[in-house]
Specification:
There is one protein chain. The chain is of the alpha+beta class. Among the domains are: 1-82, no CATH class; 253-326, Nucleic acid-binding proteins (OB fold (Dihydrolipoamide Acetyltransferase, E2P)), CATH 2.40.50; 334-413, Beta Barrel (OB fold (Dihydrolipoamide Acetyltransferase, E2P)), CATH 2.40.50; 417-500, OB fold (Dihydrolipoamide Acetyltransferase, E2P) (Beta Barrel); 505-630, Beta Barrel (OB fold (Dihydrolipoamide Acetyltransferase, E2P)), CATH 2.40.50.140. The strands form 6 sheets. It has a 5-stranded mixed beta barrel. Strands 8-7-6-9-10 form a 5-stranded antiparallel β-sheet.
Length: 648
């Protein structure tokens, strides 16, 4: 009897609450009769809910009232059926109604909870009577409604599952949905996690886009409860599987083993190869027998290659690999492939100041020395002629298999112009040439391309003492020269510029007779004598007598450049390009006085018409020559040297 009364009371309360809710939401006037009320409710709710419900009046309730005390055990059992409802908790409820906006959930509270219909997917919308797990956000909001959330309930349930997976280190699956800075976002079902780029694979990933929209196995490596942040890794799963493969592979590994691998990473110093469980290093020097600037010139990422084990360290888990060791060394039969005298074609792979290296084949290089580039041109650096990558022809000059050296030459491909130089430029012939370079000792003139001759400073003028060639010729000037000497062995040609003109010294000797007094302008004052400019473009020298350095200095200070000075002709010295003069004031005293008197007496008694040679005291001649040499006037004629030897 008690149960029936209780049931009727609950039904009545439920109907009252439902009617109130319907009235509020519909904003309509509530019908006045019970029948109309029931009809309105049936229109709002599923009619199947009311199959077992009937309306009970007050009179019927009063008729069934029984004065009966409820036992304590029964009351306890009844109380246990009432659940404790708290906010922000998961609750299982039953769908009791829905409209275009909300879904009503009965959670055993005084009123139904409301969930926004958009929280359910279109293909996952529940039916009336379905049980769903929801999250209680608010027991009662400002409008008196109980607010529930399906999305938060799903999140909390999934969050708990992921927490268990983190605690137990369980492998789960997720779908990569998009890329972000530093990694990718993985959908774990309601919850999203961050997959760092470094945790995608055991090798560096070049293209992350290939992983988009793909399902991947992962493990949670970081679980932040406060921030609701999860970090996952796929790499840790791969590494665990590789450990077993690595251990098994090292047991079978031997030096000299031939293995198949895949290029995993390329660096400046080499290539890392995945051998299926372990990584091996293929150093850049072991890629090929030839010259390699960067490993990417030989291999690319993900290339499948065959390599040879050179060395391995089981404790440190390191393996050194070789690729070039799979083929014979190219120097084994180099003398057969490149015999001396053959003309070969190769590529310039290195330039130095002494020559350029030519790659004949990978691992075999030859050197073209700078002296073997041209017969005639003086090349200081091969970069003047060649650049990196040039394809050039050269002749094999010598092979040293022991030191692995090949000498090559380019000039040997053309005739040597010096072979016929003596016939082409005969001594005494005159040729036009162009001044190419000026040095202290002479001027280099080009007879033809690559063939230079030297005009020594002593061969520039008959009468003038030339200190530098620029006093007579200029660089780039076209001049005529006479061939003085040709040496094919030493590759030298001596040229003469003054030899184009008649030697004036016979006339000068005749003009400046011994004993004659001549004068001229002082052009230089030296420590041991004075130089004056005479007629016929010749210079005269008046030496000081033997005296102390102080006396010579005091005497020289009395004369200035530009002043006129006279002296007596003593002799003419064509080899030194000078006329030696005598002046009593400059002869000094002492021993030089006797010499002066001797000269005066000799010149007084000398019969100049006899044509006899004037014999002067040797002491005076030594003074004259010494004065000029000490003063830096007389220059010794050097043997002609080639442009190449002089610059070297």
């Amino acid at each position: 009897m008690f149960e029936e009364q209780n049931k009727e009371q609950v039904v009545e309360e439920t109907l009252d609450a439902t009617v109130e809710t319907v009235v509020e939401e519909a904003s309509m006037e509530v019908p006045t009769t019970p029948a109309e009320t029931v009809a309105e409710i049936k229109d709002y709710l599923n009619p199947e809910l009311f199959h077992d419900i009937r309306i009970v009046g007050q009179s019927e309730i009063d008729a069934h009232k029984v004065d009966q005390e409820i036992s304590a055990d029964l009351e306890k059992m009844y109380s246990s059926t009432l659940g404790e409802i708290t906010e922000h908790s998961l609750i299982t409820g039953r769908v009791v109604g829905m409209n275009d906006r909300d879904v009503l959930i009965d959670i055993g509270f005084k009123s139904e909870g409301i969930i926004d219909r958009h929280e359910f997917k279109k293909d996952d919308l529940p039916s009336i009577g379905d049980k769903v797990e929801v999250f209680l956000e608010f027991i009662e909001d400002a409008s008196g409604n109980t607010i529930l959330s399906k999305e938060k309930a799903d999140f909390m349930r999934r969050w708990q599952e992921l927490r268990d997976a983190f605690d137990n280190q369980t492998i789960i699956t997720g779908t990569i949905i998009r890329r972000i800075k530093g990694g990718m976002i993985v959908d774990l079902g309601v919850v999203q996690a961050f997959l760092p780029g470094s945790q995608v694979d055991v090798r560096p990933v070049q293209d992350f886009d290939i992983y988009l929209d793909k399902e991947i196995e992962i493990r949670i490596v970081k679980f932040n409860e406060a921030r609701k942040n999860i970090v996952v890794s796929h790499k840790v799963i791969l590494e665990e599987s590789l450990i077993e493969q690595r251990d098994a592979l090292f047991k079978e590994l031997e030096v000299g083993s031939i293995l198949e691998g895949r290029v995993k990473n390329i660096t400046d110093f080499g290539v890392f190869v995945d051998l299926g469980g372990i990584d091996g290093l293929l150093h850049i020097t072991d890629l090929t027998w030839g010259r390699v600037n960067h490993p990417s010139e030989v291999l690319e990422m993900n290339d499948s290659i065959t390599v040879k084990v050179i060395e391995y360290d089981e404790e440190r888990k390191r393996v050194s690999l070789g690729l070039k060791q799979l083929v014979p060394h190219p120097w084994d039969d180099v003398e057969i492939k490149f015999p001396v005298g053959n003309i070969l074609k190769g590529k310039v792979v290195s330039l130095t100041n002494y020559g350029c290296f030519i790659e004949l084949e990978p691992g075999v290089e030859g050197l073209i020395h700078v002296s073997e580039i041209s017969w005639t041109k003086h090349i200081k650096n091969p970069s003047e002629v060649y650049k990196m990558g040039d394809e050039i022809e050269a002749k094999v000059l010598a092979i040293d298999s022991e030191d692995r050296k090949i000498s090559l030459g380019v000039k040997q491909l053309m005739p040597d112009p010096w072979d016929v130089i003596e016939e082409k430029y005969m001594v005494g012939t005159v040729h036009n040439c162009k001044v190419q370079n000026l040095t202290q000792f002479g001027a280099f003139a080009e007879l033809e391309e690559g063939i230079d001759g030297l005009v020594h400073v002593s061969d520039l003028s008959w009468t003038k003492v030339i200190k530098h060639p620029k006093e007579v010729v200029e660089k780039g000037q076209e001049i005529e020269v006479r061939i003085l000497e040709v040496s094919r062995e030493n590759r030298r040609i001596s040229l003469g510029y003054r030899q184009l003109f008649e030697d004036p010294w016979p006339n000068i000797v005749e003009h400046y007779q011994a004993g004659n007094e001549v004068s001229g302008e002082i052009i230089r004052v030296l420590d041991k004598g004075i130089i004056i400019q005479l007629d016929l473009e010749v210079e005269g020298i008046i030496p000081f007598g033997k005296m102390s350095k102080r006396d010579r200095k005091a005497l020289a200070s009395q004369y200035e450049v530009g002043a006129n000075l006279s002296g007596i002709v003593m002799t003419v010295a064509p080899d030194d390009k000078k006329v030696i003069l005598f002046k009593e004031e400059l002869a000094g005293t002492g021993k030089s006085t006797s010499a002066t008197n001797e000269v005066k007496q000799f010149l007084k008694n000398q019969n100049t018409t006899t044509g006899e040679k004037l014999e002067l005291p040797q002491e005076l001649l030594d003074l004259a020559i010494g004065a000029e040499k000490d003063g830096g006037i007389v220059e010794t004629k050097e043997a002609p040297v080639s442009k190449t030897e002089k610059e070297e």
